[in-house]
Amino acid sequence: MPILREEPSIFPESLLEGPFEEPSQRQWWVFYTKARQEKAVARELVAHQVPFYLPLVKKNTYRRRKVSSFAPLFPGYVFVWGSEQERVRVLKTNRISRILHVEDQQQLVHDLGQLRQLISSDAPLTVESRLEAGDRVRVRHGGLMGVEGVVLRRRGETRLLVSIDFLQQGASVEIDDFLLEPLP
What we know:
Layout: E1 10-11, E2 27-33, H1 38-47, E3 52-53, E4 56-62, E5 66-72, E6 77-82, H2 84-91, E7 96-101, H3 105-120, E8 125-129, E9 136-139, E10 148-154, E11 157-164, E12 169-174, E13 180-182
Antiparallel strand pairs: 1-3, 2-6, 2-7, 3-6, 4-5, 8-12, 9-10, 9-13, 10-11, 11-12
């Protein structure tokens, strides 16, 4: 089974871990790329040392044989932590369709950090769009301990939804009820 090599998905590795200096010339930008240009934008961002996050997940495709590759979890979206000059540099790639303004910078960082933890668990994810409010919970035990999200019920299974509120999208993973605790 050939595996296409994994492209850079975050730069630097510690981007979503540390506290962000206040005030800063940098801010979070969400770039919506032209069709199938997310990885090309990411490569250019790495080349210019611009911090970014592109959530990638492993996908298997079957033609004559099984092929594994890495695809964007949210097609078209790249999250950039940059200055005004870096924003202009990204626009000059001619791969951007539009820019989305981020009102709540800290909430976006929190959501992206949780999403990264969910992806790193290697559990099968399902992309969820146009989220509705549900019971807010936190995982008490296991590899996802501390992740907060919303409980969903689908086809008799319990799923934990971690959302990027700004995009009104998220990803869900199957989880056992006993691992969850309600949030106040």
